[in-house]
């Protein structure tokens, strides 16, 4: 009997928390927004999301088999990437767009760097950025949500930037009855999911609050009105980006102070793109840019050690 | 200062697992036939044996002593004949020279064991002498010689004593029961420590999950204006010396420093109770209270055990194993030491014997670090365990040192919370050892 005792070092108990439970929480948090997107954009949402998720999972298996690594699809992180990529696509895209984007996200964005935890940029955003540069027309072909006639239209942020067409009412903004990417339109539901994630301890408030707060302050100044600020906060991809994309573990800082700096940085870049570039929206590029800065931010924001002197 | 709901920043909330034993009175364990008494049960110099094979020894007789200041003498816990003096495996994870004594079952007490009188009539030096001679070491687990702790250098002014009754390790209830059943000894010990250090303020710090102990101690200090109960939030590692000082006094012991640097001396409540007993009866440390518990123990118990009794005998008294054991731990599940055999003795620092079944003992397979940052959020020392661990696994110990690896208290909170089940504290320990080894080499 005795030689079968395990004599490993302490601690001898572990919490029941797992990676798959964390990813499952993210999926749960995204379900309300998914239901809303089906309500507004119909079966196109379902089709795009399923294709994206399936491709992500298959791409992960294929990659790991090819690289002779253990297959880790059970951790559900590929599913999350698939959902997030789909949420970042216009509902009008053809069927092959989510497939190409999702495969790129998993293979180039994640697996070539070593898989989960090793990607230096958010894989879903990498996929979206690739699609947006390769097929810019497809990626900006917006449709109105259900109830509004389904011809091509412009997103509220694009209207603010380029045209004189009238903006949708603010109430539509909160509920998501506006043109935009599948999963980004319903601000309220995305915020509810975010509160769930903070409650479950999956994310902390720091990145989303710093990010959204920065956009709020700057847009209040640039637009000069609460209404203008409200459009900047709720009309684009800010909620989806700040709560679900910028908080991607492996591409964001781990230190508390670092998270704040990172959030503020993303907010600044977002507003810079929205106001000073030709693009109407800047959330995804700003997060990608801050992803690259994250290791540097971590390096200079090490917390003060207990009983230590401030460096 | 309000002394309720005190705590520190960070920490974790592991399940308590204390239900099995927290309401069980301390029982006296069966008298052992043979005791194996290691000559080093403390931090510091090992003792030299004072007896030879075939010598007859009595209970409380000094059988080991070292010349060094940082050391603690060893006494016999039985009366009988010295059979062997040899190197054996001890329950602190190391091998040590041990004195093996066969008991004659008479428990004849040695002539030197006499009551020491009232604290009021003893001088500071006398109390320190009694504590040193009785072989007192920290009963919480680390085993630092108590008289050394109570003798801070003259240039360090002391103002506070804290008795540590947090017992934040899951499963363990020995201190809890000690406070309920021997509050008078705890208070006597507190007064002795206060007098020895020359301090007039003492807090007895207890976690909120022991309301009965808080009540009993409060009743016992009703007339003591200088002793107060400090109620702590139930959180691990609340009982860590520096976290405890922070919670109770708000002070931060400097990195690399000692409690004396902020004018505080911390002692375990078990240590205080033992000091109380030594003064009352004169009997040195020859027994201790420990909790025997876990998923593979048939009848969990709080036992008063003679030092040197083998784990095997104690487990047998608790009905043996209820199922095949996977792990046998000396101490608690967070910082205890896993044993590879039950043929190891109880020593002064053994706070519990924890037997986990196969399922509980399983070590989960580690996955990739996902950088969730939970270890950073909970680290009670404010370290970045994921970074130190990563650098350690890559062999980049210099960089790990830059991330303050040496400040790690090895509480294991990071490993506990890690969703990827990574060996965080294990790899940080490796880094610490490498860094210290390198410093030693450099100073040569």
Overview of the structural elements:
Chain A contains 13 helices and 2 strands. In chain A, β1 and β2 (152-153) form a beta hairpin. A two-stranded antiparallel sheet of chain A has the order 1-2. Chain A has a single domain (19-299), classed as Ammonium transporter fold (Orthogonal Bundle). Chain A is globular, with a radius of gyration of 20 Å. In chain A, 58% of the residues lie in helices and 1% in strands. With 311 residues, chain A is an all-alpha fold. With 444 residues, chain B is an alpha/beta fold. Among the domains of chain B are: 119-281, Rossmann fold, CATH 3.40.50; 374-443, no CATH class. In chain B, the strands form 4 sheets. Chain B has a 6-stranded mixed sheet. In chain B, β5 (62-65) and β6 (74-75) form a beta hairpin. In chain B, α3 runs parallel beside α5. At the A-B interface, α1 of A face β15, β16, α10, α13 and α14 of B.
List keywords for this structure.
heterodimer; A: 311 residues; mainly alpha; Ammonium transporter fold; two-stranded antiparallel sheet; 2 strands; B: 444 residues; alpha/beta; Rossmann fold; six-stranded mixed beta sheet; four-stranded antiparallel beta sheet; 14 helices; 28% helix; 20% strand
Topology:
The complex is a heterodimer of chains A (311) and B (444).
Chain A: H1 19-41, H2 43-66, H3 77-87, H4 96-107, H5 123-134, E1 142-143, E2 152-153, H6 156-162, H7 170-175, H8 187-199, H9 206-223, H10 226-234, H11 238-245, H12 256-276, H13 283-299
Antiparallel strand pairs in A: 1-2
Chain B: E1 26-28, E2 34-38, E3 48-49, E4 56-57, E5 62-65, E6 74-75, E7 80-89, E8 95-103, H1 124-133, H2 146-149, E9 160-165, H3 174-181, H4 183-197, E10 202-207, H5 211-220, E11 227-232, H6 241-249, E12 264-268, H7 269-281, E13 287-293, E14 301-306, H8 311-317, E15 325-330, E16 337-339, E17 352-357, H9 358-361, H10 374-378, H11 385-393, H12 397-402, H13 413-417, H14 424-443
Parallel strand pairs in B: 1-14, 9-10, 9-12, 10-11, 13-17
Antiparallel strand pairs in B: 2-8, 3-5, 4-7, 5-6, 7-8, 13-14, 15-16, 15-17
Helix pairs in contact in B: 1-4, 3-5, 4-7, 11-14
């Amino acid at each position: 009997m005795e030689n079968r005792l395990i004599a490993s070092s302490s601690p001898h108990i572990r919490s029941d928390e797992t990676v798959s439970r964390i990813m499952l929480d993210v999926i749960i948090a995204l379900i309300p927004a998914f239901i809303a997107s089906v309500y507004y954009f119909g079966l196109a949402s379902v089709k795009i999301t399923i294709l994206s998720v399936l491709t992500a999972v298959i791409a992960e298996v294929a990659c790991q088999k090819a690289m002779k690594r253990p297959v880790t699809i059970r951790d559900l992180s590929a599913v999350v990437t698939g959902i997030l990529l789909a949420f970042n696509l216009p509902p009008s895209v053809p069927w092959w767009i989510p497939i190409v984007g999702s495969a790129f996200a998993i293979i180039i964005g994640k697996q070539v760097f070593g898989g989960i935890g090793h990607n230096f940029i958010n894989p879903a955003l990498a996929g979206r950025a690739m699609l947006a540069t390769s097929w810019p027309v497809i990626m900006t072909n917006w449709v109105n949500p259900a109830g509004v006639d389904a011809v091509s239209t412009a997103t509220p942020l694009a209207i603010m930037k380029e045209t004189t067409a009238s903006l949708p009412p603010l109430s539509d903004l909160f509920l998501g009855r506006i043109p935009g990417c599948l999963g980004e339109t319903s601000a309220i539901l995305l915020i509810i999911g975010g509160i769930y994630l903070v409650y479950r301890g999956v994310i902390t408030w720091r990145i989303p609050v710093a990010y959204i707060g920065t956009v709020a302050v700057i847009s209040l100044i640039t637009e000069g009105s609460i209404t203008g600020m409200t459009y900047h906060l709720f009309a684009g991809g800010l909620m989806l980006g700040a709560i679900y994309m910028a908080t991607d573990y492996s591409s964001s800082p781990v230190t508390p102070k670092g998270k704040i700096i990172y959030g503020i940085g993303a907010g600044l870049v977002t507003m810079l793109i929205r106001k000073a570039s030709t693009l109407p929206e800047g959330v995804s590029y700003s997060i990608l840019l801050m992803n690259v800065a994250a290791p540097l931010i971590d390096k200079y924001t090490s917390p003060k050690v207990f009983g230590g002197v401030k460096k | 200062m309000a002394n309720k709901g005190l705590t520190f920043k960070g920490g974790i909330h592991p399940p308590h697992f204390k239900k099995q034993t927290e309401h069980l009175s301390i029982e006296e364990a069966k008298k052992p036939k043979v005791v194996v008494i290691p000559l080093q049960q403390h931090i510091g110099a090992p003792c030299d044996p004072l007896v030879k094979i075939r010598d007859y020894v009595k209970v409380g007789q000094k059988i080991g002593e070292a010349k060094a200041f940082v050391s603690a003498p060893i006494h016999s816990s039985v009366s009988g004949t010295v059979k062997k003096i040899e190197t054996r495996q001890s329950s602190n994870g190391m091998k040590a020279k041990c004195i093996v004594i066969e008991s004659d079952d008479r428990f004849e007490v040695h002539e030197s064991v006499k009551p020491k009188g009232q604290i009021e009539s003893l001088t500071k030096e006398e109390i320190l002498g009694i504590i040193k001679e009785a072989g007192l070491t920290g009963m919480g687990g680390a085993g630092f010689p108590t008289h050394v702790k109570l003798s801070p250098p003259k240039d360090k002014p002391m103002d506070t004593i804290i008795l540590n009754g947090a017992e934040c390790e899951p499963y363990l209830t020995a201190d809890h029961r000690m406070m309920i059943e021997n509050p008078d000894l705890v208070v006597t010990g507190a007064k002795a420590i206060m007098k020895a250090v020359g301090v007039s303020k003492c807090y007895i710090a207890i976690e909120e999950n022991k309301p009965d102990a808080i009540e009993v101690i409060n009743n016992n200090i009703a007339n003591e204006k200088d002793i107060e109960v400090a109620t702590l939030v139930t959180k691990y590692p609340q009982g860590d010396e520096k976290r405890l000082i922070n919670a109770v006094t708000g002070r931060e012991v400097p990195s690399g420093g000692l409690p004396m640097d902020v004018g505080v001396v911390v002692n375990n409540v078990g240590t205080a109770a033992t000091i109380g007993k030594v003064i009352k009866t004169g009997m040195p440390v020859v027994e201790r209270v420990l909790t025997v518990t876990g998923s593979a123990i048939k009848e969990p118990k709080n036992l008063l055990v003679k030092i040197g009794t083998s784990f095997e005998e104690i487990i047998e008294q608790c009905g043996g194993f209820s199922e095949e054991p996977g792990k046998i731990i000396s101490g608690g599940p967070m910082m205890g030491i896993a044993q590879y055999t039950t043929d190891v003795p109880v020593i002064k620092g053994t706070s519990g014997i924890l037997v986990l079944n196969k399922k509980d003992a399983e070590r989960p397979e580690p996955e990739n670090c996902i950088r969730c940052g939970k270890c950073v959020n909970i680290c009670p020392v404010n370290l970045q365990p994921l970074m130190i661990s990563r650098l350690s696994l890559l062999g980049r110990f210099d960089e790990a040192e830059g991330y303050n690896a040496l400040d790690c208290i090895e509480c294991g909170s990071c490993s506990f919370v890690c969703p990827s089940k990574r060996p965080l504290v294990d790899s940080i320990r490796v880094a610490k050892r490498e860094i210290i080894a390198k410093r030693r080499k450099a100073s040569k």
